Amino acid sequence: MKIYFAEWNAEYEKLMFKLLQLEKKYDITVLDKVMKHFRRYNLKLKQNKISNKWFIRIHQFFKLRKINPDDILICNGFSICGFIDLIKDLNCRKILVIRDTIDVLEDSMKNKKHWLNKNRSYVDEIIPYFDTVFSFDSEDCKKYNFNYLEQFLPFTDSGTHEIREKSEQKNSSSLTCFFVGEYWTDREKIINHLAPILHNNGCQTDFYLVHYDDQQNAYSSEHKHYQQTPLSYQENIKKSMAADIILEINHQGQSGVSLRTIEAIVLNKKLITTNKAIKNYQFYNPHQIFILENNYDEIAAFLTAKFAAIPIEKLNKYTADGMLETIINK
User: Which of 115, 159, 234, 275 is least surrounded by CB atoms within 10 angstroms?
Assistant: First the structure.
């Protein structure tokens, strides 16, 4: 059995494949050019009501012919809209991993990427062609009968031991809070409110709020409390390891945990988060995790609170190995 990952092109995903392939525990192949010369022309054929049958067959032959019936093809919820026609009739076990909420995906696919017809739903267009669907969002799992998948880091089990050890070798005695994320107006408001409170309590801030589409026109304030420079995932991890506190500001209504949460738990850092659903997770500890609502006056006490680290051995399910074991054994 071989495991194929199709169009997982984020930097941290590429890091994950590199680390998994180095350990040689699984037979993994990365397919990163499935959409090349396909998505745009396939869309034009469909828009002009021209049969795309042979166009699909040609691309299947050159890009997917090595996949056998006993192999596993794993697609991600974001990119799949660009090549769903290629895998509809593919004879193998097909798995979809959704890292966003369905509402966020639909908005992106319809209004930003334009990969999904506005009159169609993501669930109707994509889900029927997969044997198993996993989601990080517990509410979407209940609503659409998906399988819940824990958020995971790109590091293997052995790698998480190593990065925790390195993160605990902090030299500075002053507190630092780190945040990185895409620009949203709500995020900017929270940061501008929170940063002065942290400063007044002896905590430095290292915040990066980046608008990836239009950096020049994105900002409504003087943005005194954050930088606009994008960070690579390696830079992100390095800064997370050096910080004492990680800030997470989620989409409204998001119930699943993000990478920021798992990074904080694995790296043994405190976490300030807007995710109220985090109370339902086994690792929740109010001394390590502060749920940000209208309780800014309680932050000072949180900064000085002590907590016990979760043993790294209990965090296997949040690793790349743990993710693959869950998917394969479902």
Answer: 234
For 225-272, the pLDDT digits (tens) are 888 888 999 999 999 999 999 999 987 766 678 889 999 999 999 999
Give the integer Cα–Cα distance in Å for 114 and 112. Answer: 6
pLDDT score at 172: 63
Selection from 129, 246, 255 nearest residue 198 by Cα: 246
CATH code of 3-149, in short, is 3.40.50
Q: Which of 108, 42, 31 is nearest to 74 (CA)?
A: 31
Q: Which helix (H) or strand (E) holds 203?
A: strand 203-210
* pLDDT score of 187 more than 80: yes
Query: Which two structure tokens, joined as six digits, stand for 124?
Result: 């109707």
Question: What pLDDT does residue 24 have?
Answer: 87
Is the alpha carbon torsion for 107, 110, 113, 115 positive or negative?
Answer: positive
Which burial class, exposed, middle or buried, applies to 96 when counting CB atoms under 10 A from its CB (0-12, 13-18, 19+)?
buried
Contact 251, 101 (CB under 8 A): yes
Which tops the pLDDT comparison, 69 or 329?
A: 69
Q: Count CB atoms within 10 A of the CB of residue 141.
A: 19
pTM score, two decimals? 0.85
Domain residue spans of the chain:
3-149, 157-317
**Residue 110 CB partners (closer than 8 Å, separation 6+):** 116, 117, 118
Three-state DSSP at 10 gives: coil
Task: Please list the alpha-helical segments (H only) found in the chain.
Answer: 11-23, 39-47, 53-64, 84-87, 102-107, 122-126, 138-144, 157-167, 185-200, 233-242, 259-267, 299-304, 320-329
Same fold, 3-149 and 157-317: yes
Instruction: Give the fold, CATH level 3, of 157-317.
Output: Rossmann fold (3.40.50)
